[in-house]
């Protein structure tokens, strides 16, 4: 019989091995899967009040008046706060992470459906919610700007009249690459293929919605904010800059987080409202948004219309890629990306191919939709970039009547070309693309699949095989190039070994479910030989962890993982000196074997890391110049991004009668460099592939012509279930990053980035008998069927 | 967490008690059975009621599937899961098990009820299409006793039924006729989603000839009414692909779908056609002992 105790023992055994890299169960899982996690909404402080936000029911309107009388009179209501109240405190507007401003509460106009207008503070969540129903807002409806293609029309209503001198809805222009050189290559190319590729607006939809508990201690002048944030340190600094509270009197705690996917990077008005409410009432205040609020007002992702062009020779040598992008940024530019990268890392749209030239121009506009732009596991817009290039390569294969695998193999950057500088200036660190591609083809049985497809086509059955090959750019980033609101993207790390040889590792990043407590313990274990179960990983508390920019863009392992390895090595260096004293030999005469130092040539004379730790705090002198204790701190500034890559093959069957797409097989070969915990990597890949099925087949935040959000519930905004996905078939290659201390590249977003084009390519391939070269996501049965009838329309 | 507006809660102990409570509450009282449609609407504050009358205590009284004479009678509190698992239903009307396999998910099926589904009267609701296909009748009880209405008369429009303010749907009756079988097909964007379109069919045959046939569609119009023209076209005919195609075309003509995120009008009409053909084909196969 298996009892809880024996299962616990199994976990414990599992945690004893490996001491370092390898497959092991996640240390955090017993807590999380038993409902013993501690999330923001689990927090209940004595005397805590609740906050509910009144949101705009319309997309664009002038606020003529707000009457809060009835709401304020409701029993149990403590206060009603409007934009006018915040304006008096200078808090009605706040900066976004893209140097735009966003209304905390609307003062002049509402600019998207779901925008924050007022809030109620009450004794219970129910009363707060009842109170906002009683707030009466008189709106003067304005024409909404919904169709992004018409946002710059001269007669379009101006959304951002809060910005001085603004007379249109233009947000920014951006370009990269060489326009003239690209034109020259296009002029002499045998073949040019153009296609408009739409990546519709999607939402990260984490299981836990956003929320916060704010507590202001008037005696100490200390603000504590428990909030759903992926970047607690960056948030604290922004709060200090906005509120005027001194930074050392602000503590941001990010407890267990129920999924982020980028949704919890921005600072939302709700967090600021909770802080204001705590300051106003002197009581702790909780704000938790509901599902509809999360889907309709928080950071969305994508929303790019990409005009793609690809130039090639007639035998399939790709020469150049060019694109113009129309980007919908919603009502406020809330994109979270490094300052110099308004389009994130979209510049890697040249993909995995050796090109002669590339150019991208982009126009970003404001519309009456929720703000955001970078979220949903996209590695700062690489999802869009990879989708564009991988779709365009398939369009080229279609026109050239070439096999898409063969076309890719012909154009890959070769292993000897690394480090490879792309035509848009990105320096890819390492790659063996052909090896990954061939492995995926072998796992898939690619040639047999093509044979099967041929036979099925002859019988009128619709089977498609889709390929995508992606190169990611993650681990932002070198501080010379990359900052968010002036904060460099380096990350600190502290490691302290206690006298008994147990350790605590303090990180600046913050897991939202990725398994940091396990992965980072394993990184340290690998370096100093202390078992992962003996290493406590702390993160998500600004008072107790070193500064750093947080977890998003697959940056935790590339940046903080490097920091963890280096800090462990620093501790080991000190341990070696202490060991030399203990064994009475010189430092140079010691040899490290995971977990202990021994005298060269005499393994019997050895001390373990645990013995060294005790000595470092213990009685007796230490070698000259060595302070007591065994701990170290570093801040890691990456010299370059890391560039994971992968080859994905998807097999779909389409019911010719109903046009339903069934993903039959999905083969994912990933190369994330050094692999720390296979099980966690596979979990990340499985999740990302499922995301990909969602985006390719069903997910889209749509709007009607009045700007009403049509995806504000999980009944309308569909997320795939286990029934829509196949048994994932994964494989891997290992091409370590040359500049990363342990050669790791990051895996968190690879599958989300790489899978949508594989699925869409498979669907389009299945529709080849209909003469179809392109179809836009989401490929719902209706959209596929209309495409089969020759009536495909873009999804935005 | 979405929270509803304040409301009173009462738990009925018998059907008569529920009717009394309804009578006291008037039109601001509502019955809650499985609650899987009502409670989300209340949490979204799309529906606000002063009183909820919980009839989950009536499952013993109203949860059953039994044959009485030439009818199968199903209590209104019979849960989806019980309909799914009923061998009696699966034998007499395979359409039930077909439909239940594609209704929502196990959590919803554990709780949701037949009566709740019919009373919700959502045009996309599967069991309404099933009951229409099977020519079911509905037993409604009020203070003055019981009355029986056909499915045609039961659904008055989207979200509107023949059940009055102080009445409760207690039972569904389905005639059992020899030589018949049935099937249900649904297209959804994702497991658990409402139908893009669905079609149920029931066919009765004798000596290789169709003696009667019925088709019920969901999600392609304001109501899940049957299509008499199809019944007329199929009676007396020998089953064939041409005949099914003719019925499919009639289904496509008869429906009146609206465009939404689930699909275009043309696609939904196409599905009415395609799924009707499949449901008829499957029903005939089942009569002939081919296929489960």
Can you offer a commentary on this structure?
- The complex is a heterodimer of chains A (796) and B (292).
- Chain A contains 19 helices and 33 strands.
- In chain A, strands 3-7-1-14-11-12-13 form a seven-stranded mixed beta sheet, sandwiched between helices. In chain A, strands 9, 10, 15, 16, 17 and 18 form a six-stranded mixed beta sheet that branches. Chain A has a four-stranded mixed beta sheet with strand order 21-31-32-33, sandwiched between helices.
- Chain A has 796 residues and is α+β, with helices and mostly antiparallel strands.
- In chain A, helix 14 (516-528) runs parallel beside helix 15.
- Chain B has 292 residues and is α+β, with helices and mostly antiparallel strands.
- In chain B, the strands form four sheets. In chain B, strands 4-5-10-6-7 form a five-stranded antiparallel beta sheet, with helices on both faces. In chain B, strands 1-3-2 form a three-stranded parallel beta sheet, with helices on one face.
- Chain B is globular and about 55 Å long.
- Chain B starts with 7 loop residues before the first strand and ends in a 5-residue tail after the last helix.
- Chains A and B meet through helix 5 and helix 19 of A and helix 13 of B.
